[in-house]
Amino acid sequence: MPPLTKAAADPAAPVTKTGPDGPPGDGRRPRRPLGRHNLYGWLFSTPFLVLFAVFMAFPIVATLLMSFTDFGARHVTRPLEAEFVGLENYTKLFEDDRFLTALFNTAYFVVVGVPLTILLGLLVAILLNNGIDRARTFFRVGFYAPVVTAIVAVAVVWRFVLDPSDGLIAGLAAELGMTAPDFLGSETWAMPSLIAMAVWRNLGTVMVLFIAGLQAVPADVREAARLDGAGAWQEMRRITVPLLRPTMLYATVITTIGYLNVFEEPFVMTQGGPSDATLTVSLDMYREGFNFFHMGYASAMAYVLFVVIMGITVLQLRLLKDNTR
Amino acid sequence: MHRATPAAIALTVASALTLTACGGSGGADVDADAEQTLTVWAMGTEGEKLAEVADVYKKSHPNITVKVTPVGWDVAHQKLVAAAAAGKLPDVMQMGGTYLGEFADMGVLEPVDTQTVKKGDFFPAAWEQASYDGETYGVPWYVDTRVLFYRTDLARKAGAARPPATMDELLKAAQAHQDKAKTKWGLSIQPGGLDTVQSFYPFLYSAGGEIIDEDGKAAVNSPEAVKALETYGEFFAKGVSEKAVRPGYDVTKDFNTGDVPMFFGGPWIMSLLDENYPDIKGKWAVAPVPADKESVSMAGGSSLAVSADSEHKAAAKEFVSFLTDAKGQSDWYERTRDLPANQQAWETGTLATDPKLKVWREQMETARTTPSQPRLTEITSKVDSAIESVTQGKSSAKAALDKAQAEIEGLVE
């Protein structure tokens, strides 16, 4: 996109399309109206622009507009009859107990789930990178397989694992003479169970990122550290972790975004139950939007979630910024 | 990018709005005798079996081709809403009982001509479910209700000579099953989650309660409803019903093993048990819902509705009456085991003679339904939460239903 690159190179230059190509006085090149250049550019990017406009920009804008209306089932056939209600949807949201529960549950999921995923992912990556020589591929595939497995299949397996009467964990506990809790049926245990499942599912992605990051750590730096007498722990703390910082930032940001949007796990495993103990913001939004058809209200929810995600991501980018450069 | 994006958005918004807005215009009607194709949407098993009937129909009506599109129940509601928005509803569609009010309210359904389709031919609850705001928008197709399924062998062990006739007897029988027949549970009823209300309806209606009264007002905290929920909660408090049931729980599995000796089930459970668990054939039976004030179960099922935009209304109506007259309904029962909504269909064949089916018929005659409401799903979801808070011992029946009443008052129209 010529106007943008130009603006970046020379902030003082006017970013108008009818403006001259290059600074005035540059007489060597024939003056061609920039419009022509732009036309080709626009033509070549038409496929992208059309797709973007139809499938991204339009829904985003429509959702924003909808969030200020009372759009419901009866406006489906007469969309223009939806009434503008200002900020009412937003104020109603923060008086809605279910939504507040959903916000809390989502926060719980993120606060426990993200650090667990990152730490375990790092641990597995380090082990696979250094410790385990044999069957390395086997383990890599093993840890990555959950990422590419369909959620429905995962749900079947996890239901079996967590089943209170004849499940894997319940069976093991019975062998040891203990009773396992009813994981998905108890309000205390349902969320931790889903977190465990999510960590298991997302570990693979984080692991792959960290392995790539670890392999980019220069060997000479490690060697120098060792020559200076650093032990394994010091090497890890002073060399590996700081040099992995950009990778860690990226992994944390995408995991957090994914977890804030968490939908599939509660949807397939608990439907938000028992007693809304696993109701997340996305699931609540789905219910309001598609079960009850409060499109206006659900859109407002989507924007609140969007603002939360945006805020947290910016915060993370600032806090975990690479200070070594 | 600065320039074109707003323009592009404006264009897409404008075109999308025109696309959706023009849904309201209906085309010219085509005569029933003319060569034409009818589009029909049906859900689940009905969608699979209806194509066979469409072929039969083609033989007697060579000018009409019926194109059946099966739609899964899980996506049915969304597909119908999307089609309604785009003005692309099929000529004829199966309407789940709980959907009708919503779509009638959108104005996308053609009212039924009550001169030709007689109210008296159908079960009263089925007719009510197909009506909204004084008009009838669908012709009842099949009905569904809940009756008590029980294991006769286990009942004998528990010392019960006959199935429980009252709610008190039901609780005692459930406890006797646990004590004497050593079953894990006494009765399976849903403790919480989506559509728990379906499990609660037999208790509610039998006690004389209702969610919305005849005048369309919320009535869920009436003394009758509170009593019904107290009875319901007692099964959990006394430990005869399981408090935590995961979504997608299949009660027939535990019924087969004997862990669950009694539950309330719909008509499809009969064929399910016959097909999947031949071992317990002859060891189970159905009985009417135990009476509280009286024995009243819930009515569900589907009706057939014609789209208001259809260009083939004449032919569509003929096809609908072909499916819903007594002959069409008996034939449909043979194909699907769906219980006919047309009472005359029950006068002939297995429907008239089978003792198990007699239970269904009697239950259906008195069964009740919640009046059609545009926000019915949302209303019942409030009752779901109330039931759950009682079964989990978090709230008294009165307090839970008072809360639900306040919420539902804002939702009824």
UniProtKB/TrEMBL annotation, chain A:
Disordered: region residues: 1-31
Membrane-topology annotation of the record: Multi-pass membrane protein
PROSITE patterns named in the record: ABC_TM1 (PS50928)
Residue intervals of the ABC transmembrane type-1 domain: 103-316
Lineage: superkingdom: Bacteria
Keywords assigned: Cell membrane, Membrane, Sugar transport, Transmembrane, Transmembrane helix, Transport
Compartment(s): Cell membrane
Pfam hit, one: BPD_transp_1
Residues passing through the membrane, by range: 39-62, 107-129, 141-161, 194-217, 243-262, 292-315
Record bears the keyword DNA-binding: no
Family membership: Belongs to the binding-protein-dependent transport system permease family.
Protein name per its UniProtKB record: Multiple sugar transport system permease protein/raffinose/stachyose/melibiose transport system permease protein
Species whose genome carries this gene: Streptomyces thermodiastaticus
Classification lineage: Bacteria, Bacillati, Actinomycetota, Actinomycetes, Kitasatosporales
TrEMBL record, chain B:
Protein name per the record: Multiple sugar transport system substrate-binding protein
Signal peptide residues on this chain, from the entry's feature table: 1-21
Keywords in alphabetical order: Signal, Sugar transport, Transport
Source lineage: Bacteria, Bacillati, Actinomycetota, Actinomycetes, Kitasatosporales
Name of one Pfam family that matches: SBP_bac_1
InterPro entries: SBP
Organism: Streptomyces thermodiastaticus
Family: Belongs to the bacterial solute-binding protein 1 family.
